[in-house]
Hints:
By secondary structure, the protein is α/β, with parallel strands linked by helices. It has helices at about 10-20, 30-35, 60-70, 85-90, 105-140, 145-160, 165-175, 175-185, and strands at about 1-5, 25-30, 45-50, 75-80, 95-100. α3 links the parallel β3 (about 45-50) and β4 (about 75-80). The mean pLDDT is about 85.
Amino acid sequence: KILVIEDDAALRTSIVQTLDLEGLEAIPTSSFSQARRSIRSNFKGVILSDIKMPDQDGFDVLRFAQARDPELPVVLLTGYSDVPTAMRAIKEGAYDYLEKPCDPDRLIDTLRRALDRRELVLQNRTLREQLGNQQIYDQDGTLTERLERHERQIIQDILSSENGKVSKAAERLGIPRNTLYDRMTKLRLVAKSFRSSNDDES
Length: 202
């Protein structure tokens, strides 16, 4: 997808027609305010924006896009031979700039390269997320398993500090002794293993 932001209706129509002929889906808009709802971190496309517009300009578009996703390509349209503006566009993070009137071949080539880069970025994000989720599952297990490990560690620490005396441990935990015995059975904990002597449970 190409989000086109151009206030000149004739030029906007021309750009959209050029994209259509190349099989590229265009989302035509006439201003930043109209386009901003489409600018999201998961936007599966690139932005093509004019720089000089009546209200907010192309640099406002660029800053807004970078705030949403620093890796979202923004191609800016500059006036003919406007070198200072073009250099500023690149310096502030634009993917590229094109002079108006745009050469159709260069326009398509630039946008296809930007689209390829965007696709790669999104694919890498998806892969990292999948690997991250798998790693979390492999290392930590389910939420229930993690909670049980946490509970087990707490009970072990208290039983160790109370020399394996369940009644004392239950008192410190603020639960009935029978409840603690049930949890110990569930977690396969044996009081004797925490005693440093042969003292009986009182």
